[in-house]
Amino acid sequence: MTNILTKTTGIAMYMTAGYLNEGDLAVDATCGNGHDTLSLALAVGKSGSVLALDLQKKAVLATEELLTLHGVENVIVKQENFVNIKEAAQREFPGRQPSAVIFNLGYLPGGDKSFTTKKEDTLAAAKAALELVRPGGIITLVLYSGHAEGAEEKAELLTMARELPADRYHAVYTSLLNQKKDPPEVLFITKKK
Ligand SMILES: C[S@@+](CC[C@H](N)C(=O)[O-])C[C@H]1O[C@@H](n2cnc3c(N)ncnc32)[C@H](O)[C@@H]1O
Fold first, then answer.
1. Is the model's pTM score more than 0.90?
2. Distance CA 85, CA 129 (A)
């Protein structure tokens, strides 16, 4: 077995997939190069579905290419701002609620580093995702505090999470403690049944 705890994205997906069953709906709010989307698609199986969003055309194309390469057909990929996550999910999958929503924040690896997620949008989208996700589901946010916008984004998301009512949500924050620089961290929020 690989050591899941050495990589933040591995921790994020391992936990997220734990909330997914065959046939479920999952949302990747920032599909980027498509790696998380692919993992979600495999976790929900052929009878399940994934909605993948990204603001950049380049990311949409990269995700579609990766899915094609793996013969995955249960994903709808849209070039769309994640602030519209609720509307997009209700439009593409009317009457359904996702069991998991993942946000991998920051910039597109191998892309324009100045094109990064913005704290106001991210906060609004995270709140919308909390409404959207089904009771018993999870939202996962991979946080990058190594750049200025990312540090502020992380601070705002953690404040929001700390203030969530404990009778409705369960917020958990993981951090790699002995790594150099600023390794990514993960915020998990589960919605109680
Ligand atoms: C770290 S990358 C995502 C990596 C991806 N999950 C993967 O597995 O390859 C962050 C992505 O967020 C996207 N993004 C930034 N702002 C966004 C927004 N408001 N709505 C949707 N996507 C956004 C960027 O275009 C970028 O592709």
1. yes
2. 7
Whether 41 is in the pocket of ligand 1, judged by its Cβ within 6 Å, is no
Using the Cα atoms of residue 150, residue 154, residue 156 and residue 160 in order, give the sign of their dihedral.
Answer: positive
> Looking at residue 18, what is its pLDDT?
97
Mutate to test the pocket of ligand 1, among 50, 54, 69, 122 (most ligand atoms within 8 A of CB): 54
CA distances 180 to 108, 155, 172, 176, Å, are 22, 20, 22, 10
Residue pair 104/116 in contact (Cβ under 8 Å)? The answer is no
CB 26 within 8 A of CB 98: yes
What are the boundaries of each domain within the chain?
Answer: 4-191
- Alpha-helical segments (H) within the chain: 8-17, 35-44, 57-69, 85-92, 119-132, 148-162
Q: At 75, is the secondary structure helix, strand, or coil?
A: strand
Q: How far is the CA of 81 from the centre of ligand 1 (A)?
A: 9
| Cα 21 from Cα 43, distance rounded (Å) | 7
The CATH code of domain 4-191 reads: 3.40.50.150
Answer yes or no: is the C-beta of 50 below 6 A from any ligand 1 atom.
no
Per-residue pLDDT at 123 exceeds 90: yes
Helices 8-17 and 35-44 pack at an angle, to 10 degrees, of 20
Beta bridge partners of 76: 51
